[in-house]
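Subject: Predicted fold for Probable peptidoglycan glycosyltransferase FtsW, 386 residues

User T.R. writes:
Posting the sequence so we have a shared reference for the thread.
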Amino acid sequence: MVSRVQRGPIADWFWTIDRWLLAAFIVLMGIGFMLSFAASPAVAERLGYDSFHFVTRHAIFLVPSLAVMISLSFCSPRMIRRLAVIILIGSLLAMVAALFIGTSNNGSRRWIVLAGFSVQPSEFLKPAFAVVCAWLFAEHQRYPEIPGNLFAGMLFIVSAVLLIAQPDFGQTVLLGIVWGGIFFMAGMSWIWIAGLGGAGVAGILAAYTWLPHVTSRIDRFLTGEGDNLQVELAAKAIQNGGLFGLGPGEGIVKRRLPDSHTDFVFSVAAEEFGILFCMFIVAIFAFIVLRGLSHAYRERDDFARFAVAGLVLQIGMQSVINIGVALQLMPAKGMTLPLISAGGSSMIATCIGAGFVLALTRHRPDKRARQDHFFEPGRPRGVPAE
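User M.O. replies:
I've generated the structure tokens; pasting them so everyone works from the same file.
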């Protein structure tokens, strides 16, 4: 057992990390790996692969994802900011490249093939976007003469344009919710609230008018007409499961569900393990969000408060959208269930966000007295704050 009096990096990490949050993230990853055995074999066989093709891929990405999360949890807030800026710039450049040299799937050009693996840059954009926006809003709070709010707004516009160009309207909405949530915590006035609310409604109406795939999905959701096979099968799988499920490997509807291992893994969980198990999954996501917001409420550093709140809001809203689609409460949207759905880009990117949360919620007795900021009056340019 590690002693509290030891001050090595491992001991310091062990005693300062939020072990409840860490356990919640690991439990979700374990559930995702377990569900890959239930959800993916039927899809793999239908595509002509070995039955455990996607299970093997899930395991391959699981280990480095966990390593990334643990490694990032050792970082200081300053290092988190620097890493987020690097990831953000790399993601934006990769998203631009994907529009020209990326692979197309179902009419969307979001993926770049690297070393035989398909990488989705927009997934890595999300955690970096939340951290960088939090930093910009925090600097404006500390020094009003710094146009951090303006820079954060420009960053959102650039990100949204690239996402819509792919097109990926769902991720655009998710980024907008995260950006608005951080802005609200930074002291948004009621005029801004009304203005941004109106802009959001106008954006949705514009997307419905000019983006055919958005129009089709919303119309199918409202009228129930058209190709709703996946959504109807997902709902039927949930109904078949009942409270306690049919048992591991006994699912029937999942064999006909095309994306049972990714976008509709929640329905597979309901069919084989029951509604009570799904409520347990929802409770874990709720715990992560509430635990993160509790940390943010107690945090005195603006950057850490905004970043933690934005990151857990992102994880929570993505899970709400995924589960809402499975329950036919929202229009169909190809969005994974964080840490559970198959997909290497999604898993690694979510673990990056989880690592950021764990790093920023660590208990540091001296962090109230030492809050490093990039901009600080009276400090020579290029000299970092201590």
